[in-house]
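Marked as duplicate of an earlier ticket. Keeping the data here for the record.
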Amino acid sequence: MKNSKEFLSKRETATTDLTPRLKIFVEEYLNYKQLINKPINILDIGCGRVCLLFKYKKKEDKYYGCDFFKEIDVKIDNYTPIDLNEEKLSDKYKDEKFDVIFCGEVLEHLFSPDSLLDEIKELMHDNSILILSTPNLAYYANRIMLLFGISPLFLENSSEVKLGRKFKIIGQFNKTEGHIKVFTYGALKDLFKMKRLKIIKIKSVPVWNNIFDRIICIISRSLSANNVFILKK
């Protein structure tokens, strides 16, 4: 694998199922929609080839999607190809403001998540909301795995396959997904504070729908596999 572009051209990491995490994305969009009660503009950063969230928007709202791919598999209101490691959102969406911005499982794929948040803020007005998620490196299962010298989930140390997992069931030699920066719950909150983004709401969600993960989501955000943040600038 020579470079990031070659890597990304061969990977599709967006989900095609409405997971518990994406259900929260849809719920928060609909809550905002009910509050505003007018047509709104939505930006889905890292929308994937199938633009799953597009299916759940209200007819009168306008959905903009952007991702690395030159073309996608569905027809949406507006699609823009972008390499977020090399190009700026503000250059692609000059003079645009969005009411709701989705940014699900994107930060971990970027060299500079900081720059993306700066770009996102330029596309928000005072009442906009940013709905964002990224995996939690300090997930309780990762803490246990590290005790036994096993490389944690979400963290990748090869551009080809996952290493240090020891067992196939937890990903050994599976293809990598391109994670560059991985956050703990605390580190992510620090990033938002540094970028002056206000946390309005946090919802913990399981990545794997088992009873242990569901219980952990109730008990502790810092131990959960993932958290959805609703933010304002």
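See parent ticket for discussion. The radius of gyration is 17 Å.
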